[in-house]
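go over this chain:
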Amino acid sequence: MCITIKISIYLMSLAIIICMEGCFPRHEVIMGINLVKSRSRIFSTEYNILETFYQYHDLKGDFQFGELVRGKRNDTIFISGSKIVRANYILTRNKYYYDIAKFDYVETKFVKSEDNKIKLKEVKRYKDGKLIEEQFFQ
């Protein structure tokens, strides 16, 4: 009886430790919008790396925006990302290392729309510190 209880407690503790890594969504308020933040990982066949993303959904479950956090192969980081939140926009920045892409830096800007949704406004790609591509969205 005592061994069974100890094993059960151990397994429950192990499950909690594993889930602390991101299986429970977190809530954030960005630009006055209540969002649910969850993490996902995908294997990029284009770059041959494991990419970690944060996805942000509104409380209805509608996707709002995503953020690439890291791209990693074995113990080497090929992509690192960050997010900057301001009063009227969100800026995500990704740095690409080891010439893995045709660019070495990407900036995406998101804004709040009139219907209280977060929309992609622009994407900028840089190579060697120079702007090489710029896209605008409505």
